Amino acid sequence: MRLSQAVTVLSIFLCVGTAAPAVYTSEYITLGCPASTTPTATETQQYEALNDFATLLYLQKMPTKAFNTYVATHLINHAADVPGDGAALALQTVGPLVSASAFVIEQLFVGQDRGVTYFKATTPMGTAAAIDMFRMSGTCLIEHWVIQNPVLNSTNPHPYF
Prior knowledge:
- It is built from 5 helices and 5 strands.
- The chain is α+β, with helices and mostly antiparallel strands.
- Strands 1-5-4-3-2 form a 5-stranded mixed β-sheet.
- Helix 1 (3-15) crosses helix 2 and helix 3 packs antiparallel against helix 4 (63-70).
- The longest helix is centred in the first third of the chain and has 17 residues, at 43-59.
- It is globular and about 50 Å long.
């Protein structure tokens, strides 16, 4: 048995009966999750972590603290406005926008190692409805997607929010 196979078997053995599958525990390490997070978590613990992250980021406008507390160093990022992966690059892009904008968190939920925030963002460029979706390893945010839609005039009596 090669060393890589032994590590995989050991990882699977250690994760049997825990809240997170072995692959997520492995990613917790390889993607560089902060020491303030845990590699396994219940959905309630994940909800609390995502809620705290969103509160720090959007409402308290403390992006550096939010990222340093919950985001993996090597975050896998699918956001079109961020030119690559990694927490530092995402923070460099998001930080200035957060300080110049106002946010209202409309909905937040967690399930199956995914977390979603749906929020209203009023930025210097206009108002948008946005969704941030994260893949989580325990209480660590390891992968990110974002969908943004400008708020337009609508005949719908309750558009967006």
